[in-house]
Amino acid sequence: MELVILIVLIAVALVGVVGLVAGSALRGRTRRGPIRPGPDSSGLDAGAASPGSATEVAPGASPGLAAGAPPAVARPGGPEPAAEPAELAGQAGAPGGATEPAEEIAPAAGGAVTAEPEIVSPRAPLEVPAPAMGRIVRLRARLARSQNALGRGLLALLSGDNLDEEAWEDVESTLLVADVGVAATAEMVDALRERTKVLGARTAADARAMLRDELLAQVGTSMDRSLRTSAPDRPAILLVVGVNGTGKTTTCGKIARLLVAEGRSVVLGAADTFRAAAADQLETWGGRVGATTVRGPEGGDPASVAFDAVKRGIDDGADTVLVDTAGRLHTKVGLMDELSKIKRVVVKQSPVDEVLLVLDSTTGQNALTQARVFTEAVDITGVVLTKMDGTAKGGIVIAVQRELGVPVKLIGLGEGPDDLAPFEAEAFVDALLGEPA
């Protein structure tokens, strides 16, 4: 029994001695510091400072950086990712340990210090718009519905064997349904009656010639339909106005294509700041043909954007500045007052050469109501009729010109980028009447 107790005491004493020796060795190793791995070790701490190391800790920097473990900083977007060696190198030169963006201090090739450039996708090759002249001739088939409603309907009546009172009433109804307007319809019926009494309309060719002359008289061949897109010693300024849904912004882009096709340099002003993506839409149109687009923040002041666009056009020496104003209901007085403000602001830098009113030709008499109100807010110099390839009757050209006293200068005949055509009276009337039999 005494032998067993002696063995246990000896075992306890040995365990105690081994523990003391192990503890002393561990404490001595801690005082000497951690063993640094060699340069080929995969465990190298990116933030550790050593003689000859590329990463240094600036005076005043926090101890955590010296240990290679920067503290996490809470940001609204979530925790900041761990710092890379290049970022720690940038911190070394900042006074008081201030942190600067890595892209501002990272040395570029050759040792020069530059900011990291923004990545911009290369532009696609610029499109070449179709020539402006003769577009209406190439697109005459698009007027098929107007042709059926106005031209061919009247030809069928006037070339009949017996032009009695009932036939003349049908002629009058055809003109009214085609949106020619009451006053213009009365004038045309009286003129046609007189000519048939004097000259007669013995054949379809005679009827066609007679109707062509009267339509040309109403449409007008002596009006100046040219766009004032150039001015001496300054850019020409064009404002485009209209209600929502008429195709106003699209028309601006198509006008830019027309001007580029004529060899002019164009600056676009995206002053429709209230409609979502209007500025993006206009910028896309301009980018296709190399036109510069000036835009502001969404919901910003349209007059400010228009002012900046004109200034940019003057500074760049552009030929034309084309400003797309915000679409507005003609019944909203405040919006119409804002339109007047845009013109006043633009005039402080340069005179306005054209104010084009964009109207949806399919809305008929409602388009005339809109035209009256817009004319009160700004001096309209020309009209653009869109969607003439749709359900428009053709007579809207006559009605709008009589109402406003200004010419129709452009007509939209489709959704294609080059489907906006300068208005040519003779080509338009010939398209309405169709090919002679």
UniProtKB/TrEMBL annotation:
Its membrane topology, per UniProt? Peripheral membrane protein
Q: Where does GTP bind?
A: 242-249, 324-328, 386-389
Q: How is this protein named in the record?
A: Signal recognition particle receptor FtsY
Query: Is DNA damage tagged as a keyword?
Result: no
Q: Where is the composition biased (Low complexity)?
A: 58-102
Reported function: Involved in targeting and insertion of nascent membrane proteins into the cytoplasmic membrane. Acts as a receptor for the complex formed by the signal recognition particle (SRP) and the ribosome-nascent chain (RNC).
Enumerate the UniProt keywords alphabetically: Cell membrane, Cytoplasm, GTP-binding, Hydrolase, Membrane, Nucleotide-binding, Receptor
Entry's EC annotation: 3.6.5.4
